[in-house]
Structures are given as C-alpha cells and as structure tokens.
Amino acid sequence: MKKRAAAKSTAFTLSAESRLNKCQQRDRRCFTGGRFVPARISYNAGTGALGRNLHIPKASLLLLAIFVCAPLWSQGSQGFDAVDFFGPAYQPAKERANSGVLSDSLKSGAPSWINFSTSDNGSARDSFKFAATGLEFNAAQHQTCEALIDVGVVDAGATVSVVELDKGGAVGWHLRDLAEPAKAWLVELKHKDNGSYQLRIRVSTGAQYSTFPHSKTDIETLQLPAELKLTIKPSGLSAEVAGNQSEAKTELKNGVTIGLATTDARSRLRKLSIDLRLHPDWIADANARLLARRTLERLREYATVGLLQGVAAHPHPTIKDALKAYSDAERAERENAFTLNPASRAKALLALAESHPKSAVAQHEAGVAALQAGLIVRGHQFLLAADKLQQTSLTCLALAEAYRRIGQPDEAEEALSRALTDMPDGLQPDYALLRGRLLADRGDIAAARQVLSEASRKYPNSDHLRALSESADALMETQDLTVSNIPGPLGLQLASDLSDAQLKPVMARLKPYIEQIRVWLPDLEETLEGVVAIYASPIEYLHAALLVAGDNLDNIAGMYMPHGIGNGPSVVACRAFGEDELLRTLVHELWHLALASTGHSQAIPRWLDEGMAVFLSAGKYENESMRYSELPTEFGGIQNPIGAITPSRIEFAMGARPQEFYLPGEVHGNYLAAWGVVWFHATRAGGLQFLRDLLTGDPEALRRVNADHARLQQSVTDALKDGIG
Q: φ, ψ for residue 140 (rounded to 5)?
C-alpha cells in the first residue's frame, strides 16, 4: 500500500447521525453578546503493517448490496427523496427539483430533523420545552440556545412566529456557510430593555458578530405574536417583522445551514415554515446518512435471517413422523407460520413447541425461528431441548450458532464438531460458514479467511460464503485504502479512502481524548503497533466489516479487532455515520486497543473495560475536563435510564462474564451500569489513582470497588436525577 502523495478529491459523504451537518460539526459555537461561546450539544444517536493495495472485484460489493443495500442504491440512482428523509413534514414542490416546504408547529416534540444546543455546560434538554403554545427557549444572560435544523439550502424563504421574547434578549435565524463554517450570519429581532425592538442582520468576524451598515431597523412597539420572516438568496439576506424590513448584501454562493436561536433571555416560538431549495452538497450528505441508516437496517436482517437461511430451509430428518403428532389445525398453523415475518413466525412456532415439549422437530424449528427473530436466549433454550431429545447434524449446527451468538465459543466449537457426524452434503456450506464466523469471533481472521476461501471455491453457489470470504480478504489486505501522511493516533498507521484534508479535523478533535487515554494508562507505550482504517462509504466499510460485525450490531459504526488488518491490532470505522459518531467510535475502540496493548485487558472485568470506553467516548472534552450534558448516546434506547440504574443491574453488570455482559436484551443496561460505576469513581477524590489500580487488575482495588455497591448505586442514581455535569 502506497503513501498518499497528496490530498485527493473524495465524494461529499461526511455527515452526522446527530443531525448536524458538516458545518455545524466543525464549528460548534453559538453566539451571545457579540462573541462566540462553546456550544453544548444534545443528541435525540499482528504486524501492524498494511499490505499492498489490493483491488477486490466490485462483484463482491454488488453481492453485499443485494443482501444489504439494494433498495437504497436504487433510491440513490433516482435522486434524493426528501419526503423519505424528513417525513410528512416536507411537502415537495411539483415544478422545482429538490425544492419544497418544510414545516412544524413546534408544539408537540422535536421532529427528527431538529437538534438542540446550548452555549453553557448544562444539559441542553433543560433549556427547551415543548408546549401547546410553542417551543420555549430558556436562555439565561450570556447564554445561547439554538434549534439546529438539518437542512442546507441554496435559497429559502422562512417564517416563524415569535410568541414571546423577554426584554434584553434576541431571537432569530442563525445561518452558517456550508463550505466555510467560519462564515456565519444572524438575522435577529432584539427586545431592548426600554421595551422597544430592533431588527438587524449581523455577520461573524471571527470572535464576534458585527452589524451590517444600514441593516438596523428600530421598532418602537411590536405586538406579539408576530411573524419573523427571512429570505435567503445567493446575493444576500433580508428580513421582515410586522411590516418592518432589514436587508444586507453578502455572498452566500456556497449555500447555508439554518438554525433558530435565542440569546440572553427566554423566548417562545411556533409555526416554523421553510420554503427551500436544497443545496447539492447537503443532498449528497443526506443521501449518505440515509444509506448508512438503511444499510444498518438491512444488515440486521442479513445477520439474523440471511446467514441462517441454509439451516432454516433444511428439513429436519424426522419431520414426517413428527407431523403425525400434530392436529390438522396445528399443521395448518405451522405451514402458515413459514409465510410470516420473522417475529410472527417465531411467535407461532414457539407456541407449537410449547404444546409439543417432547417433539425434537417442534423444539428445533422454534429455536431456529427464535434465532432469526433475534430472540437469542430463547432460541438457545429451545435448541438445547431439541438436541437433548434427538441429536442431529442440523440441530447441532443451529445450536453452534446459538452458542456463538451468546458468546460461548468453546461450546459452539463442540456443537460444531458433533454436527460433522453423518452431516448431509447440503449442510456442508453452512458448516463452513459457521466455522469461519467462529474463527473470526476468536480474532483469528487469517484462519477464518482460509476456511471461507476454500469453502467458497468448493461451493461456488453459496452467496453467503462468497460475501464473508471477500470480507475476510478486505480485512487482511485492505481494499482501496492508502496510508495517510497524517500521523495516526497512538502512533498507529492511519489508512483511509478519504483525503488528508478530510481526516485532519477528525485527528485534531481526537488528540485530547488520546491524551486522556494516556492519563488513565500511564504505562502505555508511546507508539503502538496496528492500523486505524477509516472508510468514507458505508458500503465499502460494511463489506470489510461484515465478517466480524455479523449479528453484533450495537456499535456497528466501528470496531476493534485484535487480529484484523494484516492480522494485527486494528480499529475499523466509517465516516458516513457522521463525524461526531466517528469521533466517539474512534475513542471507544482505541481505548480497547490501548488497554489490550498494556496486557491488562485479560486481568480486569468486562464492565471496567467497556465502562471506561463509554466514559471516554461519550464525554465532551472542554476546558481540560470531561463533561456530560446528556447521557451517552449508547443508552438512547433505554426509556428510563435513571430507573435502569438499580442495585440488581449494577450487581449483574459488575459480575457478568463476557458472554453474559453482551447478552441481547441485557447489553444496553450493562453498558449503562458500567459507565455509571466508572463515572462515579472517576469523579471522586482520588478517583484517578483508584481507577489506574483497577485497570492493572489490582486485587485490592477490585475488592474495594465490589464492596461499595450500596453507596455507589445511590450516588449514581442521584447524579442522574440531578443532571450530569
């Protein structure tokens, strides 16, 4: 693989899953009192050497696209579907391409295309409140609260109703240049202390905003509510409220993003409407986000259903005799089950299995259906029952997959060995598929590659074998990546299909987090062996990651592999899920790699390793300290995080073996508990040294942390109730 000679042009694919466009990601500053203030963001999500530049045939990508991404590729070829992106809030214009009206009442909760930020260190969620009268912005003096709208426009006409605006405050439109984030504008209505108002347009000069000459319009009296109107043209801006107008000539040729912001006082807004023409760069960005999101949805189906298709389709050897014990109604119910979606099929077959507890066939079919529906624990239970009733190669294969998914590789290996006894030829491809995935789970990508490659040649009609074989190839000899001129974090080799210009801001943002990793691991070597690979496209990334991602989809934006690229320590990540998500992912996975390099990872419990990874990656590094304005995004699916921090949950997470820690249905709660325990100790006096001792596996430190449950549980719960800071 060659060194990158110069920054090359790359398709515009950078985006943020947190719904901030690239300008807002790079320039996280809000305005207040004529100056910038750092913003707080609330989110609504062996050798270490690279091999030669190996170009794998694009047929493999087409194969993966068939399984995972075909609907989105079709969509991309037909243009951007704004209705699909925004939902019913967007009404497309019939006669103008990529144009339409985006609107929301701002009364009933945040739409998916709006996110929030505040300029202080508090929780963003505390600064905004939806009610029947509109969205309330609770900005204190010298504070800014902003609703970030996920659009990038060429031109637009926007209106919002200002229902309330306290004296001393300003409310208005905050615009940022799509291509040059440092360029920003404010179109605002100021409520003066004497009760009068002023409409004005300001432009960023770096450290503050200055008012355009002749853009100030004084308003002696203003009856609220009143519509604040904005017009955006490439040649300038204009505004109007209650017949009072303001305008400024300024160059907006790159397109702008839009936000609603209040500073220094409380305000209330409602009835947002934007008649817009979307900018091509933003469209490309939004398409990448749609592709990433849909790819994950399809990958879940591929991992849970697709890779078990062979086993699921193969009839149990005693099926004919078993069906004699079924009533006519049960046989009809069984036949109908196989026409249903995975969840409904599992429900029907599980009910039949409970009615026939002595039928190996009923238990087997229920177990396989449960696995395909993502009910891993139940699937494992039913397959164990089937295996005890009657051992067959088919059930052993399915049981091996169940053991693999619950993190018991030794038991999976044993079941896989038993499957070889009298195995029908039709199951040989599925045996090879499972063996290759199990080897990959153990971290031996080279061995998995050999098994999958040989099997793919032997069984050329197996699409799944071919896809996973080529994924192993892409991991061992990276596809279409070049080594960056930018030094990698921790001395690792940095490789990407992105330009150095795109990588540079990410690496700059990563530096303080790397320093934090070194703080917690003082014996960490200055330079580590390994590779950090960052992909631009989710298709290319998932093509490489498919083998090791499999059904472990909780952190699919990236992963750490002890034996990955070149069979050495590797972190693989994708930028298409957003720069913020990329940053979090890199910090999380680099922590795992760094800890493993010290040799301590096997000596400490899993909760400590994962808790530290979340603690570092979920924090916002500001003013030389780690702060939290919201719970980490990993816990977005937990409806009641405070209620989830129970004594039993912390007890379970801290005592869980690896296979128990990652159990489906338990893993999110375990991550939450692990993060809470680490956060508790890290923020206490003496916490630095105590956690350093824990991270070396010190028995006395581990004894002390496990003896402190009652006080720890109450402290974490209280902190969550009071707001993380």
A: -85, 175
Is 552's pLDDT higher than 60?
no
Cα angle value 368/370/373 (rounded, 5°)? 115
Four-residue CA torsion sign, 407, 409, 412, 416 = positive
Q: Which whole number is the average pLDDT over 9-14?
A: 22
> Residue 645 gets which letter from DSSP?
-
Location of each CATH 1.25.40.10 domain in the chain: 296-475
Q: Are 393 and 359 in contact (CB under 8 A)?
A: no
Average pLDDT over residues 6-35: 26
Are 590 and 524 in contact, with CB atoms under 8 Å apart? no
pLDDT of residue 383: 97
The pLDDT value recorded for residue 651 is 81
Fold classification of 87-282 (topology level): Jelly Rolls (2.60.120)
* Strand intervals (E) in 430-476: none
Count of CB atoms situated within 10 Å of the CB of 96: 9
Between helix 445-458 and helix 463-476 the angle, nearest 10°, is 140
Banded model confidence at residue 463, pLDDT cuts 50, 70, 90: confident
Domain limits, CATH 1.10.390, in the chain: 482-722
Q: Where in the chain is the domain with CATH 2.60.120.200?
A: 87-282
Strands 570-574 and 531-535: parallel
In CATH, the number for domain 296-475 is 1.25.40.10
More confident residue, 79 or 565: 565
Q: Is 482-722 a CATH 1.10.260 domain? A: no
Q: Is 369 left (phi over 0), alpha (psi -120 to 50) or beta?
A: alpha
pLDDT at residue 518 greater than cutoff 60: yes
**Alpha-carbon separation of residue 12 from 74, 80, 280, 498, 536 (angstroms):** 19, 14, 10, 10, 9
Q: Looking up tokens 């699909």, which residue turns up?
A: 84
